[in-house]
Amino acid sequence: MKTGKIKYIDGDGEWNGLQKFKVTFADGERFTFFSKGNFKGNIGDEIKFEVSNAERGTAKLIRENSFSTPNQGGGATSKDELIMRQTCIKASAEFNAKRENSSSDTVIEDAEKWFNWLTS
């Protein structure tokens, strides 16, 4: 995995129904990324990516989970863990819908508490 700050993003046509983008980083490296739509980064963003083919200069973007996890070591999220997360957020939304002064922040805080309790 590599990290780089985006300096330039240039559209480079299409391939197999995907958009191609040449992305140049502040350190001078340049890679081609493929995307179903627009490139998921902006000039000045620091992104994480993985070189998929060094000879061809292709790479793929690594996206981070927005829901914080107790095991920050990385790796794949299991299907069971995703089901537990979904269950916690649904239960928290239903619980907070019946409370006054609840917000999206309280929904997420409660869901994280319950998820952490389940996985500890």
Protein architecture, described:
- With 120 residues, this protein is of the alpha+beta class.
- It has two domains: 2-62; 79-119.
- 29% of the residues lie in helices and 34% in strands.
- The chain is built from two helices and five strands, in the order E-E-E-E-E-H-H.
- The chain has helices at 79-97, 104-119; strands at residues 2-15, 18-25, 30-35, 46-53, 58-62.
- A five-stranded antiparallel sheet has the order 3-2-1-4-5, with no helix packed on it.
- A hairpin with a 4-residue loop joins strand 2 and strand 3 (30-35).
- Helix 1 crosses helix 2 (104-119).
- The radius of gyration is 19 Å and the shape is elongated.
- 12% of the residues are buried.
- Mean pLDDT is 85; it is low at 68-75.
Q: Any idea what the shape is?
A: elongated
The end-to-end span amounts to 29 Å
DSSP helix fraction: 25-40%
Oligomer state of the chains in this structure: single chain
Number of strands: 5
Number of domains: 2
- What low-confidence regions span 5 or more consecutive residues with pLDDT below 50? 68-75
Sheet of most strands: 5 strands, antiparallel
The radius of gyration computed from the alpha-carbon positions, rounded to a whole number of angstroms, is: 19 Å
Strand content: 25-35%
Number of helices: 2
Query: Main sheet: which strands, in order across?
Result: 3-2-1-4-5
Q: Residue-averaged pLDDT, rounded?
A: 85
How are helices and strands ordered from N to C?
EEEEEHH
Structural class: alpha+beta
